[in-house]
Design goal:
The structure is a single chain. By secondary structure, the chain is of the alpha+beta class. The chain is built from nine helices and nine strands. α7 runs antiparallel to α8. The longest helix is centred in the middle third of the chain and has 23 residues, at about 100-120.
Length: about 325
Amino acid sequence: EQGFLQDNWQGVYDALVETDMLQDVLDMLPMQPDPEATKHMDRAMDKVMGIMANMGEGDLGKASIFAQRMALPDLSSPGMVNISVPDMVWLMSVDPEHEKARFEDLLTLLDYGFTELEPMVGMKIALREAPTAGIGFRIFNGVQFGVDASAFELAIGHHNGALIMTSGYGVRDDVANLVSGKTTTSIASSDRYKKAFAGLHAAESGFSYVDWQSISRDATQLRDQLQVRVRSEMGLDEEGADPQTQMMFDLGLYVANLGIEAMSINDYVASVSYVKGRSVHKETINALVPGAENNAFYPMVASAKPVANFAKYLPQSTTSYNVA
């Protein structure tokens, strides 16, 4: 059943490639690039497509997983807000016999892409090696011209039938230790995670998990840091503070508190999808925190009723729909 759907989606992708749709989109642009830019773009696309032509070998990406965790901005410098790149990880399965070749393809693709981007973004992007937990990671570091601090880090590696890509500064070591078996304590070890999926169908086509309590804690911490910073820079802690400025600050704080209240009612959301016959089914659980009935948004959640008789509003020619 799963193979049937994968074959059909592959057919859709192959058909899109054959249509040369990208060129059609470029032709519709109101302002066409100059001929030299067009030639450069064509050469770049040929280079990229040539690299990607082999990347499907070895069932690359037949199974993949993406995860992200929030990185709070650095507010330590007066008058500045240094935005941090979120920690992200992307793992893609690949047949072990093709693992090294697909890793080299991905490395070549990224190296070429960053070389093209350097003059456009005003950034020098360097490549270095950084072995971690026995995995030979290659690290792309982006440094803005004239600035010593690294603007971002993108790492790629491979191990035991998986290609690994991470961004940010805190997640690479964590993932490397898990993939290499040096540690076994992962999110799947937590009781909350196990409970989230215990009542759901076995995941076949995919699954997702969102820890809303972690997100709301980060949002609360960010609100508190910004509150102190904004009050200081707007002079609201001084005598004779402007009432209009104070009112605008209070309004912004109220909206921030409202957003945190809306997030904090949720404990976690878990979802799975699976194949039954020739259709894909999805199950989701949105768990509320203990004491959720005291949350201002609880009536909106608790009063929701099943949607019924929606089909009578759809014409017979309808081929797909979504009800929310």
